[in-house]
Each structure stands twice: as C-alpha cells, then as structure tokens.
Design goal:
Strand order of the largest sheet: 1-2
Strand content: under 5%
Number of strands: 6
Shape: elongated
Length: 271
C-alpha cells in the first residue's frame, strides 16, 4: 500500500491486528477504525499534522477501496489485502473463488484434517491443511514459510491458547457463511409450506444427490440444526448428537438418513 509497509511480514501484521482489534471480534470498526487510520497517518507521514478531518478523509478513501463487504467494518482479510506484500499475504489464500456456503463441504474439510479424530485440529494437522491449500492455489511456499504461517494462524485463531483449533476456529478461518437453516421457520407455517421448506433443506444437505444423507452430509445437517439452539458446538458434541439423530431416524440401520426417514422424524408428510 505504501513504502512504510514494504517490510511488513506476517508477524508484524499480527501485531498490528491484535493491537487495533481491541475487543477481539475479528474485525475493526467504530473507534477502533479511527485509531487505526490515525496510527497509519502518523506512520505514513510523520512530519504532517494529524487532524480528525484528515483521519476521516483517509478512512473514507481506503474504506471505499478495501471494504469489500461494504459493511463499514474492516475484516482481517481486508486489512491483509491493504497492507501486506504479495508473498506475505497468506490470509487471502482462505478467500475462496466461491464462498464456503455449505456446512457439508465444511465438515468434509474438518473430517479430512482431523486425522486422529480427536475433535480438534492440531498444529501438525493445520500444517497439512495449509500445504494442500497452497498447492491448490499453485503457490510455491518453502517448508520454513509453511511453519511460520502455521504458527501465525494458531496465534490468530487459537483463542483459548490450547495449541488446537476447534470446529468454530476452523469455521472462522474458512469464513463459513451463515447457517442455512436460519431462513426457515418450520413451526410457523402451513403443512404445504413446511413440505416445500423440507424439500429445500434436504436438497441442500444431500450434496451427493443420492436421496439419503450420509457421512459429512449428516454432520453438516446436525451442525446447522443444533447451532440454532446451541451455538459454538464442539466436535465431540456434534458426534454425540449425530449418533442420537441416527439412532432416532435411521430406521433401516444402514448408517444413512433416507429422505422419508428424516421427514418422519421432523413430522413432515411427503405424500
């Protein structure tokens, strides 16, 4: 963005981010934004007088260019895009060409990299995830850089500092979009509307289009369904609830939830 930031690396970026994201909510807004642009103005032009008016103009200029979600907030990816050099802009790797808008795809990723099925992603498992991600984006990154990025990602997203990432940490990293089920009100509509909603819901989670939910499709459905009433579900909790759902709905005990089985469980008549 400016010569003042030419030597900024991932560690320096993390330091700036943590300083201005004072309430640790993943973005900078309100007074945090003013403080950030005031800091930038001092760094970019130490000889010039910093006034509220000049800070406001600078903020407007950069927010119009870099606030890609146009929500008046500066997200960590947007800030990385603003000030990090190309080879250090590792956070932008997580901005997929198509947004991750399906919990089934998210759970496929989770199951693949939680290799030991511990319910958490360790630093070693995160490193494997990053390596695959760099390869997918055709980026050549040295093993030392992957190590550095792994450490930095753990510092940013491992909120309780236990050396592991949980389901919610990975959801934040991958910018998983809003819970699909939030748009439905199954109890507040007619039988015909409930049937239409059920068809949409089943089609969303039946990614393989087999007419039955299995594996990560069941995971994704359980995750979204339970998070309506219990946010921040852990992986062990999800596994327990998945077992309960299968025990209740899987009438033929094939490890899958057929469409008619789920309809029966939810009290929806398909006929």
């Amino acid at each position: 963005m400016d010569s003042a930031f030419d030597n900024l690396d991932a560690a320096g970026f993390l330091e700036i981010w943590q300083h201005f994201d004072a309430d640790d909510n993943g973005y900078i807004e309100g007074n945090e934004l003013d403080d950030f642009f005031r800091h930038m103005m001092k760094r970019l032009g130490p000889q010039e007088k910093v006034t509220d008016e000049r800070v406001h103009k600078l903020k407007q200029r950069f927010m119009s260019a870099y606030d890609v979600t146009a929500d008046g907030k500066l997200q960590i990816q947007e800030l990385a895009n603003m000030i990090l050099p190309e080879d250090e802009n590792f956070l932008l790797v997580f901005r997929r060409e198509a947004p991750l808008d399906n919990s089934v795809d998210f759970m496929k990723i989770w199951r693949k990299y939680d290799v030991d099925c511990s319910g958490y992603i360790s630093a070693l498992e995160l490193k494997a995830f990053l390596k695959d991600l760099f390869q997918k984006h055709l980026k050549e990154v040295s093993s030392d850089k992957v190590e550095e990025y792994t450490d930095t990602m753990m510092k940013i997203f491992d909120k309780n500092r236990d050396g592991c990432l949980d389901l919610n940490d990975l959801a934040r990293i991958l910018a998983l979009e809003e819970n699909f089920l939030l748009q439905f009100q199954m109890d507040a509509c007619s039988k015909e509307e409930r049937k239409k909603d059920f068809e949409k819901i089943f089609a969303h989670y039946d990614v393989s289009k087999t007419g039955a939910l299995e594996g990560p499709e069941v995971d994704g459905f359980v995750k979204d369904m339970m998070e309506l009433v219990r946010p921040n579900l852990t992986s062990p909790e999800l596994d327990k609830l998945k077992g309960i759902l299968l025990g209740h709905c899987d009438a033929n005990k094939d490890g899958k939830i057929q469409k008619n089985e789920l309809a029966l469980c939810l009290g929806v008549k398909l006929g």
